[in-house]
Amino acid sequence: MNLLFSYGTLQQENVQLETFGRILQGEKDVLLGYKVDYIEIFDAEVLRKSGQQFHPILSPSEDPNDRVEGVLLALTDDELKEADAYEVDSYTRIKTSFLSGKEGFIYIEK
């Protein structure tokens, strides 16, 4: 299983059901050294699923103590590909560590 840190719409049950066909298991965690900004979404399918015109997006912070709270979701390889397809081109996926010491993926600003 892959761990994916969700700090936005992938935490919504309706988005999970439509994207992955199931409700994902997850646990709270914290990402250090990043901040949350917002981007406007124009992709009709993502807008339909999320119901939100503006989505959060991570960018590195100059303050290593900045914190983003979210949920580490457990995804299969195929589900990780589905998550990649859900995220618009403004995002890129990278691997990092979390406050818990676990490693997983995050989507950050491209």
Question: How would you portray this structure in words?
Answer:
The chain is of the alpha+beta class and 110 residues long. It has a single domain, classed as Roll (Hypothetical upf0131 protein ytfp). It is 23% helix and 45% strand. It has helices at residues 13-20, 44-50, 77-86; strands at residues 2-6, 26-32, 34-40, 54-60, 67-75, 91-97, 103-109. The strands form three sheets. A three-stranded antiparallel beta sheet has the order 1-5-2. The chain is globular, with a radius of gyration of 13 Å. The mean pLDDT is 95.
Rough shape?
globular
Strand content: 35-45%
- Helical segment count: 3
What is the first-to-last residue Cα distance?
Answer: 25 Å
Question: What's the CATH H-level superfamily name?
Answer: Gamma-glutamyl cyclotransferase-like
Indicate the percent of residues in helices. 10-25%
Strand order of the largest sheet: 1-5-2
Residue ranges: pLDDT <50 for 5 or more in a row? none
Counting structural domains, the number is 1
CATH class: Alpha Beta
CATH topology: Hypothetical upf0131 protein ytfp
SS class = alpha+beta
User: Main beta sheet: strand number and arrangement?
Assistant: 3 strands, antiparallel
